[in-house]
Amino acid sequence: MLSVKLICVGKLGEKFWADAVREYEKRLSAYCKLEIAELPEQRLPQTPSAGEIAAALAKESAAIRAKIPQGASVIALCVEGKTLSSEAFADKLGTMAAHGVSRLCLLIGGSCGLDEALKQDAALRLSMSPMTFPHHLARVMVLEQLYRALNILAGGKYHK
Length: 160
What we know:
The protein is an alpha/beta fold. The chain contains five helices and five strands.
């Protein structure tokens, strides 16, 4: 069974986000072993300098790297990443599985995104849209798309 780890910078705040995440955790249990790791977002001043942002991203990156499972294929979610349809995302996951990928790690940054070096090291940079979303919503969206993709690969009816 596919092992998926979702590493998120920032905590879920409101109950409705947590409820949505729990719903997709339940749905995904039929298709993969899912683990979600939440890491604290680095605190920044109200108007941070570029250097302060870079330092914060570097600290977050070190914490993220420490949580990436050995041998996992990494997908970094970032606005400048590749946009894929649900079917294309399913195809990508299917191709990865055909090439022996059994561990997948998806990364969602905090309000300042992900460190550039971390994104460059990823097997795939994935964008859900050219729009910017709060990381709480991005977490729900990526879990839904992961569920949809795995359901497509299994020949399920969710996508139809």
